[in-house]
Amino acid sequence: MAEEDLLWRSFRITHVLDCLADPSKNRVIAEFSDRISAVFPYLNAIMPTVQYNPGAETITLRREYRILTFYPHVAVMAKVDGAEDAAAQLRWFQELCNETWRRRSEITPCYERRAVVGPLDLYFLLPRLNCRACGEPTCMAFAVGLLLGKHQPAECVKLAEPEWAGYGSRLNELIR
Question: 48 is in which domain, residue-wise?
Answer without folding.
Answer: 3-106
